[in-house]
Amino acid sequence: MKLNKINIIIILVSVVVGTIIGYFLNGSSDHQHEQAGNSENMEAESQIWTCSMHPSVRQNEPGDCPICGMDLIPLSESDNQDGFSANAVSMSSTAMKLASVETAVVEKAMIEKEISVTGKLQENENMDFTQSAHFSGRVEELNVNYEGEFVRKGQLIGKLYSPELLTAQEELLLAYKQRENNPTYFEAAKQKLKNWKLSDQQIQSIIEAETVKEKFNIISDFSGYISKINVTEGEYVKQGQSLYELDNLSSLWVYVDVYEQDLQFVKMGSEVQFHARPFPSKEFTTKIDFISPIVDAKSRTVKARATIQNANGLLKPEMLVSANIEFKQYDSSAIVVPKSAVMWTGKRSVVYVKEETQAGISFTMREVELGLALNDSFVIESGLNVGEEIAVAGTFSIDAAAQLAGKPSMMSAENMESVELTKEAKLELKPLFDSYFELKDALTQDDFSTAITKSKELKAAFQNVNMKAFKNDSHEIWMGYHKKMDKILEHIHHHEDIEGLRKNFIALSDWMIQLTKSFKPHDETLYLQHCPMADNNKGADWLSREEPIVNPYFGSSMLSCGEVTEVLK
């Protein structure tokens, strides 16, 4: 009995202890579940959702991209870059090599530019001569017969009968006889004949012959090619009257046309190398010796001149030439960077500045102000300091990484690698480009009515492009262009005059050029052409299917103004 009581007590104690232990175990488990639930809720609340095609999109919950309609995806924690500035994009050394990223230290450099110009050869006016009659009389003989005939100095070119000269000879003979009594009279008689360009030898021959000569030889005073004959045999001429004109082509002038925006690079003494069209492999070198103070109102060019020696007569007046004028200047404050380092164009341009810290390597986009555009580089007016390191190659890769990381970026077609399009995407773009070229042709013909019609067709072709035809990377690029081109085309057909439409065409052409470089949607060769005087002398580009320049920005007023700057194949 006593044993049973003990057993009952043990059982009761066990139940109580088990209940207490169970309570604590359950309480701990519930608490852990509550903590886990709270952690999951906090994580869900902090999750950021983005679009793989438009990383700038950020939302706190899943959904569709407001730009392209694609499903949003979670933003990876790996996108956070601890240790770097907020706008920097990090890149490892390995990533830089794979992306072909190269950098250079910013430094001051010589400002060098080569200006390409065209022009032609002309006669050196300082070498143009007129053969005049030294005394009045009748032309008895004339030995020069046609223009272009070469005459040497001292050559007999004709004979002249002069009553005045007969009288002067008689005075000479009389004075000679009286020379001992009146030497002054004798000297005056000789000087009179010398004033008529008779030589001492001719005067002495008259004295020795003791008789007057009825005809006197006309001797050429200059060498050169006859350019104009002003008298004929039997014609009476007065003293000083022109017998013929000639050009000495042993020295020629080279005249070239310099656009007014390039005048800052052309100075007196600037070196010029030129090629004459008949001798493309032969280079001639000279220096600028004259710059016209007048700008041509139509071509907006200034004449610059150089002198070239032509003793062998190889060069001829009116030959066309192509020339390069070299400009070199050291500016102690000039910062010069390669064009490959600069993204975008115009005053608002950017570069990527490299930074190295304990956290690693990063690049930050920085806006710079461009100065002079040189051949392969830009002068930087502001935004960079000497000693900083910038990306000079692979800038597109850095910019793409920045865009995908949601950092400030600026995609530039000039640095953008082309993306292969599907046949479907190419067909979608064909009507857009066809309309663009038709609009360009209407502008070259100054046909405003047709240009407005083609503007409407171009806008419709753009709106009808099916974005689903663009796959993978091409979709992202197209969506980037779509937004900008939509704004450009919004009012393109609302212009009241052709000048307004031409200004709109500048922005349109910029994006069509970038589109072409990004996608290469054509199976034909296109020509990137540039007019330096368009857009108030800022310069503007356009695309053409033909190589010859037909300018859409000026039409008939300056139809051939411009040059091909790039061939797009």
TrEMBL record:
Transcription keyword on record: no
Domain Heavy metal binding residue range list: 49-74
Similarity comment text for this entry: Belongs to the membrane fusion protein (MFP) (TC 8.A.1) family.
Domain CusB-like barrel-sandwich hybrid: start-end pairs: 133-246
Limits of the CzcB-like C-terminal circularly permuted SH3-like domain: 335-398
Residues in CusB-like three alpha-helical bundle domain copies: 164-212
GO CC annotations, alphabetized: membrane; outer membrane-bounded periplasmic space
InterPro entries: 3HB_CusB, Beta-barrel_RND_2, BSH_CusB, CzcB_C, DUF3347, HMBD, MFP_Cation_Efflux, RND_pump_MFP
Domain CusB-like beta-barrel: 252-325
GO molecular-function term, one example from the UniProt record: transition metal ion binding
Protein name: Efflux RND transporter periplasmic adaptor subunit
Stretches assigned to the DUF3347 domain: 433-522
Keyword annotations from UniProtKB, A to Z: Membrane, Transmembrane, Transmembrane helix, Transport
Regions that span the bilayer: 7-25
A GO BP entry: copper ion export
